[in-house]
Give the backbone structure.
Amino acid sequence: MARLWPGVLLCVFCGVLGCAGTYRAEPSAVGLNAPAYDVVALRWQHRLAHRDVFDYRPQEWASAAIAADGSVYVGSSAQRLLAFQRNGRMRWSFKTQGAVSSKPLIDGDKIYFGADDGVLYALDRHSGRKLFAYPTRAPIINQPRTIGGLVLFTNGENRVYAIDGQTGKWRWQYDREAPEGFTIQGHAGILLHGDLAYTGFSDGVTVALNARTGAVEWAQRLCSDKKQFVDVDSTPVLIKGLLVSACYAGGVYALDPQTGAVRWHVQAESVAHIAADDQQIFYAAPRAGLVALTTHGSESWRQALPNGTPTAPVSVGRYVAVSSTRSGLFIARKDNGALVQYFDPGHGISAPAAVHDETMVLLSNHGRLFAFDIRGN
């Protein structure tokens, strides 16, 4: 089986030299169609990975976890997980054997995260001391989840693991066979709701598992009419009694969370990421741009984006944020999709922004971490 990557820099010199980036641009350059104003303002920045100035399209995949006290935990291609105080001062650094492309999970005094070396790490979040490390044979690129003393996570082998959150001992696992031929790079994370764990696989199937035992509650095949690129790489979301998932070749599907039955389907291409708030569903794709759907599957609006592969959309109060691998961060209004702010760090952004309370954190492809105050909400 082979894997494929899914498919206006305004401040090139700034990105190379590592300055703060560009907040706004001429409206015609990035499609700003409303008066621009600051939803976010830069608080601090820090270099995590040192890239050669001549690196061709470098990429960083990690998103940050933000604690209630404003502490930030984030990894990078430099094979480290770093902890920062709210003011940007580094607290500790933990060395891994592979790049860190996943978003950590803060769980009380512990922090869990996966790395490209296939290891799920558990650390003391205050000191960075290793508590245990559970090895697997494929990269772990999504945020783990915890329930009832278990840590659940997926990896690139089409596998779900459950391990003991205290000891790291194996409890159960669920596997699906990868399809023949090419698949899209990446894999879905886990959504927990009640005692069920929802996730998707590269064979085009979305599954509901008993989170405590691993027993299959139901499995629903999406993109049944497609022959290739049927990957369900988006982590499912729940909204108003619907489980929403996406197939890369076929679009967005709303399912019954209890049975997996398809309620509605919106045809779209290259959908690898979805998000939702309590009113709307958002997805981003290279051709479609940023799109908002109602809970009935009708399109509310769409906003074109420049060339590049967009990240997962992220809710920011009255706004939604999305980044692009070949440009920067775009912030749009949820009610009509109008772009109101643009931030260009140089070299693009491959990882979704992290948002908690009044803080947004994102990592640029050139290895620079930016922390923002959210103030326009």
User: Anything to note?
Assistant: Residues 81 and 94 are 5 Å apart (CA to CA). Residues 1-20, 23-27 have pLDDT under 50 and may be disordered. Helices lie at 12-17, 27-30. The chain has one domain: 2-6+19-54+61-374.
